[in-house]
Design a protein that fits this description.
The longest helix has 20 residues. Helix 6 runs antiparallel to helix 8. The protein has about 280 residues and is of the alpha+beta class. It is built from ten helices and eleven strands. It has a five-stranded antiparallel β-sheet, covered by helices on one side. It folds into two domains: about 90 residues, Phosphorylase Kinase, domain 1 (2-Layer Sandwich); about 180 residues, Transferase(Phosphotransferase), domain 1, CATH 1.10.510.10. A hairpin with a 3-residue loop joins strand 3 and strand 4.
Amino acid sequence: MAAQAGTGDVGSLQHETYEAIRILGRGACSTAFLCRHRQHGSLAVVKQVELEDLPPAEREKALTEVELLGMVQHPNVIRYFDHLLQPRGLYIAMEYAPGGTLDDFIAQQSKPLPEAVVVRFLAQLLLALQALHERGIVHRDCKPNNIFLDDRQQMLKLADFGISRLVPAATFKASTLGTPNYMAPELLEGRMYTQKSDVWALGCIVAEMCNRKRAFEAPNVSALTLLITSDKPVVLDKSYSAWLQGVVRACLHSQSDQRPAIAHILSQPELQNALVDVQLL
């Protein structure tokens, strides 16, 4: 896959393998393009990461994303296709999920999602996190904007491994990485990041699907930190079952060692029908 670094315009992405169609989004040091495979016409996302003036830490993040994408092959995780590293840029080709982000999907809802939909999405997120955790990976930035949907908006796919880490290197003190609204209390207090911090983020995402607003929202980081560490329970819309409320409450336990493991949640009877449905998607 040959590529030429550019300025982030559609015409600047020149591949032997992929033809750029349009820009999907821009980050601080990267641009995501929707592309078409020149030979067989399939769609893909190519993330162009400018490396020329990138600080060493940001360069490491980009290379980590490539490494981790290649390690995980799962239906609920965005698939990695290929990458090319050049002196000025890194190009990562990955699966395109045309249904938009979960963040967009939640914003489009005018009334609470049916519990069956929430539970189906919960099951898929659990399977995605299980696939990561079994390989010793923690995501570190689980949020609706990093979760994509297929064309039928029935299957979720977890993405954006830019700040993920392998567990031996991940049980470290939290830095400013991650999105504060989904960060567990231990991270905001400067304590260690573990797989249970991903479980906290999962609880935030499920609550957001149910209530159509973030579980924790405040006007500034200081107020947000106070809210998250206050141990105030998050209450779901009254249309949801006591079981689902219990799952969210358990995931959002202020003490990380009291939060359930992914495997424990997956074993609950209320999830079994959803897990069967996922296999049929």
